[in-house]
From TrEMBL:
It comes from Halotia branconii CENA392. The chain crosses the membrane at residues 12-33. This is Penicillin acylase family protein. GO terms for molecular function: hydrolase activity, acting on carbon-nitrogen (but not peptide) bonds, in linear amides; metal ion binding. Ca(2+) binds at E202, D361, D364.
Length: 839
């Protein structure tokens, strides 16, 4: 007979299990409910206020919408509504970045980032743009905002996205405000910043002068190699690529350089939110004339390289007027930004275009001399001038509001005010540094822009002349634009506001108290680099040098042209007419040109074991392709990481350890020709090392690491298992709370390539792993002979809703260099059809 105590324990255990089961099921049910209630309605009919006529939204199997509308107002209102359906959390987050209001969402942890962003004043510049904007553009932006707000009116909290359910636990009082045209415009500023940040190179060079000679610093930033291609190859001498070091490199005192270093702190904080793209991370694009293609018409290819993001930075969409007419002149498909009106990259029924970052140097740091008796005055040509002072109030979710005073000089905002440790420069040699100083930023994006004009004008352009006219308004986030049309023309433009400097090349901070370094206006649009139907039958851009001879300075920080070289090689070596399938092969190419420099040096190094010898043979027999399953690829990239560490870590500050990108290809390519270069010698050893000793050390270390990480047998080494990509939600996916991160993050997925292969999945050699940091964020191939033959893919998916079927369904096609059709005509391959009707 069982005792009463045991029966009670058993009964109690059953009750506890039942309760736990009920609680668990309730929690699962709540999560499922919270997740699914934010999924967009994709079929049926929805009545909206302010919409003027019925709009049709058709989605394909990947969730990509095509909008068909009778007028421009309804077209852009529907775009705003659809963007909000799939991506409102992303839109809300990015507008808070653009306005410097992150602390309103996430609390005091973002106050310092907000201080930095408010100092940039992107929202203030956007307000000026709206005041200067013509009525039609303003109306289009308001229609977009009306669409977003129509969605917000009926969706709040977790009905918007799962992120809001989590945010409510941290910030119960947060409620998204209505969308404004201002919010769309600040997006352009954020992207201009993300694609630029050239002033960080000024800081880096200056900090390196603390421990290196001017010559050594310039060795780490070599001029563009003569054997690598330029975008416009007609000329032969680069008049702006030869640096006069005696006039370009200032000498700063040690304490001044240490102080300047602190300005990087808020920059790093912002990078954690938007990704670290910036200078020398770029994109590929090329356009091929019909004289070289299988169809006799041009083919255009583009794949912009950006930081890994979840959701995707791109939102694929089609915007179609029915019918296309003067009032509604749009019939375009391609890639948009959620939060921004129109299509950024894509094709219409007449033309196609693609973009790569121009690497333009449109930022300069000025050292301002401050009045010791009045900190709000600075010197201009011997006279004290009052600064402009602007008071800002930062709202903080978990604290009291904070007041910030932003100081402006004639050059722009004082960045040193948001870096408390940036306190003192002194006089020294070539650049006078005053006792009382501040550091100001001049940047073209801190002036009113017409970028939104350019986007909409490109969307409706019908020919090269109209496209050129549109590009004249593409004044910030300067890009290389490639063009093609159905008549068979191809072209290239580099639009933007490029400063003409009275003195200097923008490589170091300059004195602000004199006019000697002032900008003398901007390069006239008609004098900017351009090409139309070049004789070689193609144009290839990969952020590389635009021309060997050009009378103005664009930048000295070009990407070094290794990807461009591979594009040109593959175009030139193809003896058959080029097809869309061959372009796919090009976009998926994983050949590393870096190996061509280093592998020929390996036979000369001494090795100790048969396993090391076998590993060397692996590289000597390798095809140089960084394929996912390649053992040789795993070995070479590991060797590259150790080579950079063994060569430079003893001589550089940790924050400037080599990241392994294209610049370091050029640096190594130069110093391997000098077996006894000072760079090969370890400072912390008594003996003097040479090139072959460092190559030997790095190679043996790489073999040892792979044997430890993967296998004693080189045949089992696997590049993709080292080189993985994890898609992390930009906010809650980096919370540090594992269960929350698991809700939103996806991965890791194995990948191929590296940052300088055409399949540009970048990893950073200054990190502890080979994890992917930057990727071909989308790939597009447009066939102007048959637009329905055009292809595209982006990653990870169309939807911003965790657990939605389109959240990460494009990851595998993207990894495998697979594509989907860029649907074009109405009623083709529709999976869902939604009608937006007047209320």
């Amino acid at each position: 007979m069982k005792s009463p105590k045991k029966r009670w324990l058993r009964k109690g255990l059953k009750v506890t299990l039942v309760v736990l089961l009920i609680v668990g099921l309730s929690l699962v049910g709540f999560i499922i409910y919270s997740v699914r209630r934010s999924f967009p309605v994709e079929s049926g009919a929805i009545a909206l206020p302010k919409i003027q006529a019925e709009v049709t939204v058709q989605r394909d199997k990947w969730g990509i919408p095509h909008i068909w509308a009778d007028n421009s107002h309804d077209l852009f209102m529907a775009q705003g509504y659809i963007h909000a359906q799939d991506r409102f959390w992303q839109m809300d987050f990015w507008r808070h970045i653009g306005s410097g209001r992150l602390a309103e969402m996430f609390g005091s942890s973002q106050v310092e980032t907000d201080r930095y962003l408010r100092t940039m004043n992107w929202a203030g510049i956007a307000k000026q743009e709206i005041q200067q904007m013509d009525a039609q553009i303003k109306s289009n932006l308001q229609a977009y905002a009306d669409g977003v707000n129509a969605y917000l009116a009926k969706h709040q909290g977790s009905a918007l996205s799962l992120e809001y359910a989590v945010l409510k636990l941290l910030n119960p009082g947060y409620k998204p405000e209505p969308w404004q045209p201002l919010h769309s415009l600040t997006w352009g500023k954020v992207m201009a910043y993300d694609l630029g940040r050239n002033f960080q190179r000024e800081i880096e060079r200056t900090i390196l002068l603390k421990t290196l000679t001017p010559f050594q610093v310039e060795e780490l930033f070599p001029p563009y190699p003569q054997d690598l291609p330029v975008i416009l190859p007609q000329s032969s001498v680069d008049t702006k690529n030869n640096l006069n070091l005696s006039t370009q490199i200032p000498t700063f005192p040690t304490e001044a350089i240490a102080s300047l270093k602190s300005i990087t702190k808020p920059i790093t904080a912002l990078e954690k939110l938007i990704g670290k793209t910036g200078v020398n991370v770029g994109s590929n694009s090329w356009v091929i004339s019909g004289q070289r293609t299988a169809t006799g018409k041009p083919i255009l290819a583009n794949d912009p390289h950006l930081a890994v993001q979840l959701p995707s930075i791109w939102y694929e969409i089609g915007l179609h007027c029915t019918p296309k007419n003067t009032e509604c002149p749009y019939n375009v498909t391609g890639f948009s930004f959620a939060g921004m009106i129109g299509v950024i990259v894509g094709h219409s029924d007449r033309i196609a275009w693609g973009v790569t970052n121009a690497q333009a140097d449109v930022m300069d740091l000025y050292i301002e001399k401050i009045n010791p008796n009045n900190p709000n005055q600075y010197e201009v040509n011997g006279q004290w001038v009052d600064m402009q002072l602007v008071n800002e109030t930062l709202k903080v979710a978990d604290s009291q509001p904070i007041t910030q005073t932003i100081r402006y000089t004639r050059h722009g905002p004082i960045l040193s005010d948001v870096s408390p440790n940036l306190k003192q420069f002194n006089q020294n040699q070539q650049v006078e540094v005053p006792q009382n100083y501040a550091v100001a930023l001049r940047w073209t994006a801190l002036e009113p822009s017409k970028l939104v004009y350019a986007i909409l004008q490109m969307n409706r352009a019908q020919n090269w002349q109209e496209f050129r006219a549109a590009a004249s308004n593409f004044d910030i986030a300067s890009q290389n634009l490639v063009y093609a049309d159905i008549l068979g023309n191809i072209g290239y433009l580099m639009p933007g506001k490029f400063p003409i400097r009275a003195k200097g090349q923008g490589r170091y901070p300059v004195p602000g108290w004199t006019d000697a370094y002032e900008w003398q206006g901007y390069i006239d649009f008609e004098q900017l680099p351009t090409s139309f139907n070049p004789s070689q039958g193609y144009i290839a851009t990969a952020n590389n040098l635009v021309a060997r001879e050009y009378p103005y300075l664009i930048t000295t920080d070009w990407v070094y042209g290794y990807r461009a070289k591979r594009i040109v090689e593959m175009l030139e070596q193809q003896t058959q007419p080029i097809s869309v399938a061959y372009i796919q092969q090009m976009q998926g190419d994983n050949q590393t040109l870096n190996a061509q420099t280093l592998i020929p040096l390996l036979p000369a190094i001494s090795l100790n074991t048969p396993r090391q010898e076998a590993a060397r043979k692996l590289l000597l027999d390798w095809d140089l392709q960084l394929e996912m399953t390649s053992p040789a690829a795993a070995l070479f990239e590991t060797f590259w990481q150790h080579l950079l560490a063994d060569t430079f870590h003893d001589q550089l500050p940790q924050e400037y350890f080599p990241d392994g990108g294209d610049r370091w290809y050029a640096v190594i390519q130069n110093i391997v020709k000098q077996p006894n270069s000072i760079w090969w010698d370890h400072r912390n050893t008594p003996k003097v090392e040479n090139r072959d000793q460092i190559l030997q050390q790095a190679f043996i270390e790489a073999v040892d690491e792979l044997e430890h990480l993967q296998s004693k047998d080189p045949k089992n080494w696997h590049w993709g298992k080292l080189h993985t990509i994890t898609f992390r939600n930009a906010t809650l996916g980096k919370s540090g709370v594992a269960p929350i991160e698991a809700l939103f993050n996806r991965g890791a997925f194995i990948t191929a390539g590296n940052g300088e292969t055409l399949n540009a999945n970048r990893w950073k050699a200054d990190q502890s792993s080979f994890a992917v940091t930057d990727i071909p964020s989308m790939r597009m191939i447009v066939d102007l002979g048959n637009l329905e033959n055009s292809l595209a893919v982006h990653t990870p998916g169309q939807s911003g809703h965790a657990f939605h079927r389109h959240y990460t369904d494009l990851v595998d096609p993207w990894r495998k260099i697979e594509y989907h059709p860029m649907l074009w005509k109405q009623q083709i391959n529709n999976v869902a059809k939604l009608r937006l009707i007047p209320q």
